[in-house]
Design brief:
- Keywords: ATP synthesis, Cell membrane, CF(1), Hydrogen ion transport, Ion transport, Membrane, Transport.
- GO terms for molecular function: proton-transporting ATP synthase activity, rotational mechanism.
- Belongs to the ATPase delta chain family.
- Helices cover 59% and strands 14% of the residues.
- With 183 residues, the chain is an alpha+beta fold.
- The chain folds into 2 domains: 105 residues, Orthogonal Bundle (Peroxidase, domain 1); 72 residues, Glutaredoxin (3-Layer(aba) Sandwich), CATH 3.40.30.
- It has a 4-stranded mixed β-sheet, with helices on both faces.
- Helix 1 crosses helix 6, helix 2 runs antiparallel to helix 6 and helix 4 runs antiparallel to helix 5.
- It is elongated.
- 21% of the residues are buried.
- The model has no long low-confidence stretch (mean pLDDT 92).
């Protein structure tokens, strides 16, 4: 693990290496793929990230393992060089944080924002699409919507876009009514 500010700096550096929006998407896809592969734990075997950051193995051997994995994954050459650079700096344990920061920065540059829609019951597809369209109009950005179900809401929906929460749940409305009747 590395501090968040350091992960942002590495992510920003990789982002600056992308000359086009398409290349930016390729870099994001490739670094996310590497993290998915490197973080896998199989039946009492350490993950690739654990091996790469372990001092139990000599650096040249760990570097060779990383190079072989990168070759087999056929990642973009820039992403492979970037990951080798991160390894050389002793920061490979932060690859997942760097990938997460990269995705956030890339989304921001592309005008995308993540949102979470929580409802008491699964919503019909057309209702979800209408909510998504309304959020896109309100934010002026493309919404990447994740849906969840929480029966405790009783009814209505709660939507979180970035740090802003729109709470139209029956649970919250009943709580507000209870508070106003007590006061």
């Amino acid at each position: 693990m590395i501090p968040g500010s350091l992960a942002r700096r590495y992510a920003r550096a990789l982002l600056q290496l992308a000359d086009t929006p398409i290349q930016r998407e390729i870099f994001g896809r490739d670094i996310a793929s590497f993290v998915r592969v490197a973080a896998v734990n199989e039946l009492d075997k350490p993950s690739l990230l654990t091996v790469l950051e372990s001092g139990a193995y000599p650096v040249p051997e760990r570097r060779a393992v990383l190079q072989k994995v990168l070759e087999r994954m056929s990642l973009d050459a820039t992403v492979s060089k970037f990951l080798l650079f991160v390894f050389e700096r002793g920061r490979i344990s932060g690859a997942s944080q760097i990938a997460r920061q990269y995705a956030e920065m890339s989304d921001a540059l592309s005008g995308r924002v993540h949102a979470k829609l929580t409802s008491a019951r699964p919503l019909p597809t057309d209702a979800v699409n209408k909510i998504k369209a309304a959020l896109e109009r309100a934010t002026g950005k493309t919404i990447l919507l994740e849906s969840a179900v929480d029966p405790e809401l009783i009814g209505g929906v709660v939507t979180q876009v970035g740090s802003v929460v729109y709470d139209g749940s029956l649970k919250t409305q009943l709580g507000n009514l209870r508070t106003s009747l007590r006061g």
